[in-house]
Amino acid sequence: MALITAPHGPVLLDAEAHLEKYRRLLDAVERLALAPQKSRDLIHSIAQNL
Questions:
Q1: Is residue 2 very low, low, confident or very high in pLDDT (cuts 50, 70, 90)?
Q2: How far apart are the C-alpha atoms of 45 and 50, rounded to whole Å?
Q3: Model pTM greater than 0.90?
Q4: From the CB of residue 19, how many other CB atoms can be counted at a distance below 10 Å?
Q5: Fewer CB in 10 Å around end: N or C, the chain?
Q6: Could you tell me if 13 and 2 are in contact, meaning their C-beta atoms sit under 8 angstroms apart?
Q7: Is the distance from CB of 3 to CB of 10 less than 8 angstroms?
Q8: 8-12 contact pairs (CB < 8 A, 24+)
Q9: Torsion sign (Cα): 50, 35, 16, 5
Q10: What is each CA distance from 20 to 13, 23, 42, 46, in whole angstroms?
Q11: What is the spatial distance between Cα 47 and Cα 27, in angstroms, rounded to a whole number?
């Protein structure tokens, strides 16, 4: 079971198919996300250019 926040409010998921969908989405986001230091560098670079 998982509680997620959706645009229309929190949703409790307990169906395995729904949980698997969100697990795949989370895995994809984790693969695409920058490493913490690269995130800091990017934010710093953007802030310097403002």
A1: low
A2: 9
A3: no
A4: 14
A5: C
A6: yes
A7: yes
A8: none
A9: negative
A10: 10, 5, 32, 35
A11: 29
The reported pLDDT for the residue numbered 21 is 84
Residue with tokens 């949980």: 19
Q: What is the C-alpha separation between 1 and 36, in angstroms, rounded?
A: 29
The tens digit of pLDDT for each residue in 8-50 reads 677 776 778 778 888 898 999 999 999 999 999 999 999 999 9
- Pair 22, 11: CB distance under 8 Å: no
